[in-house]
Design brief:
Blueprint: H1 11-33, E1 40-44, H2 50-58, E2 63-68, H3 71-80, E3 86-90, E4 103-109, H4 118-127, E5 129-140, H5 147-159, H6 168-171, H7 177-186, E6 190-203, H8 206-210, H9 219-226, H10 229-242, E7 251-263
Parallel strand pairs: 1-2, 1-4, 2-3, 4-5
Antiparallel strand pairs: 5-7, 6-7
Length: 266
């Protein structure tokens, strides 16, 4: 089942918009998992293979299966992750094509909030992990310190109330530490932990910040490209005036993800 038709179909656009920041969060998430070498892993909503690659490098997993509903993403993942331990195939996060207890670890990066039934998705992750194995995921802090999107939607909503229909800070209340922890505990996971992963996002110029919103891939770019050209120009100039800009035009923003993990009981 696709997450949202067309939302994440363009891999190259995603790389420019969020992939470059996810690439820095993924290794920090893998370090925090505290994995022992070896074991089998499934990466659900693997996208272009960013988290898969981080696991192969930072955790030395024995094998990893990447699952995604977007065929374009899977093509990019196969091209970019040549490690023979990795396999990529299409699949539905709410009905994983894997047997019970097949993995030592199930992970998902920046996907949970897009799934229509979060509890069912987490239950599937638990189902395919053996007793004593680990389940972990991370999501952007859309409502708080994911400033790339927060600045965008705060300005957009002031100009057009319709922007809130695209704003994951409004649409995805699960992307906060309390709801994430409650979701993991509700799935029967033990030793549940939630923590923030913080990085800085540096843009060389306003155009470096703005151009990815024109790619149409993701909630904010999709909203941006739904506007008329005059409305988009007004949004652009309001954003230019709002963003903290250095003397040479550089922009430095905070980026936060919330990560959660827990062990499968048994």
């Amino acid at each position: 089942m696709p997450i949202e038709p067309g939302l994440w179909g363009a891999g190259d656009s995603y790389e420019r918009y969020m992939g470059r920041w996810s690439r820095r969060v993924a290794p920090a998430f893998v370090d925090w998992l505290g994995l022992q070498s070896g074991g089998a892993c499934i990466d659900i909503g693997c996208g272009t293979g960013i988290l898969t690659a981080a696991l192969l490098e930072g955790a030395a997993v024995a094998r990893i299966v990447g699952i995604d509903s977007a065929l374009g993403f899977l093509d990019l993942a196969r091209a970019r992750v040549a490690d023979p331990r990795a396999t990529f195939r299409p699949g539905d996060a709410l009905a994983l094509p894997e047997a019970d207890d097949a993995f030592d670890l199930a992970v998902s990066g920046l996907v949970l909030n897009f799934l229509p039934d979060k509890a069912a998705a987490l239950a599937e992750m638990v189902r395919v992990v053996r007793p004593g194995g680990l389940v972990g995921l991370y999501v952007w802090d859309y409502a708080g310190h994911m400033q790339i999107m927060r600045h965008f939607f705060d300005v957009a909503a002031a100009l057009d109330p319709r922007a809130q229909d695209f704003d994951d800070g409004v649409k995805a209340p699960v992307c906060r530490p309390g709801p994430l922890g409650a979701l993991f505990e509700g799935a029967g996971l033990a030793d549940v932990e939630v923590r923030a992963i913080d990085i800085a996002a540096a843009f060389e110029s306003f155009d470096d910040y703005w151009t990815p919103f024109l790619g149409g891939t993701g909630s904010a770019p999709r909203y941006c490209m739904s506007l008329t050209e005059p409305a988009r120009a007004e949004l652009r100039e309001r954003l230019r005036a709002r963003l903290p800009t250095g003397p040479d035009g550089e922009i430095l923003l905070a980026v936060r993800a919330w990560a959660a993990k827990g062990r499968v009981a048994g």
